[in-house]
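Hey, I'm writing a tutorial for new members on how sequence and structure tokens pair up, and I'd like a real worked example in the thread rather than a made-up one. If someone can provide the structure for the chain below, I'll link this post from the tutorial.
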Amino acid sequence: MTTATAHGPAIGMLGIRFESIGGLGAHAAGQILASAAVLRLGLNGAHFSSYGSEKKGSAVKSYVRLTDHDTPIRSSAPIDAPDCIVVFHTALLSNPVTVAGLKAGGTLIYTAPAGERPEALKRVARTCRVIRVDAQTIANEEKSRPNAVLLGALCGALDALDARAVLAELTATFEKKHASAVPHNTRAFERGMAEGELIQGLACGEGDLPTMRPGPVWGYATAPIGGVIPLPGNTITNNLTTSRTGYMPVFGAEKCVHCGLCDIVCPDYCIVWGVVGDGPVPEVTRMRGIDYNYCKGCQRCVETCPTGALTREEERPGMAARLRVPIFDRIGGGLNTK
């Protein structure tokens, strides 16, 4: 916890939760927001993040608590009932934990292209404000990061936050080590403020959303028997969709010579092959496409392809589902060799 040294605006107790995946900058955004509140706005603030042993590509939650200068912060627990939730990746909305606990009068900000209205947000209280901003596209266009865009959208949505102070802290964070990034971040921040769209008629729930813990709390009466693995892991169900950060490899069969170099460098074995006819291998083994359920968008295949059959493309809604070639005919089934 950091204690303010000057008097700032009266905000009561404000809890903000960033829902993200590693690599999109939620942890850095939380640090910048809390630092701006304490050092530039005279508030009390606390920030910490929660993630696994490897942050990049995995789920990340970042928490920011803000209070008036004369109100101490006594808790360092996760924010289960936030006033505001900022969702860094649309795919996270498919998990109810992402919006769990949002207060009925709260604010939800999510990143998505214009016109995308996730069905999962219907359970949010109708009295909440739901704001959409295309953070990934803006970040790409301004050569910045989604966190700068979403910080701008957050400042535009919450009167308690002074956009000038948050932008000043964002600038101070980068100007010493990455000075060239400052103008890009500034433009991304300002576009986030200006281009946030208030979505009407999407949320239709009632009251506060129930809080959810990410996993069970074990006790002496509920703990599983020792030495038993009741739910063994299996990579068949390991969906890496949320690991992609705006781009995906796209396969063009007309240029492919089926050399297999992409398959050699792919860390997740998402390249799909098929056998054609009854001739000898390798003449009849052909690349059929990519199973995007297992593709994290690392672009190793694109970098390695000698013919340009694999290209790096901006991922748009529904694109992965349309182009996907399943490795498995069904979950638990055999390899697809059709």
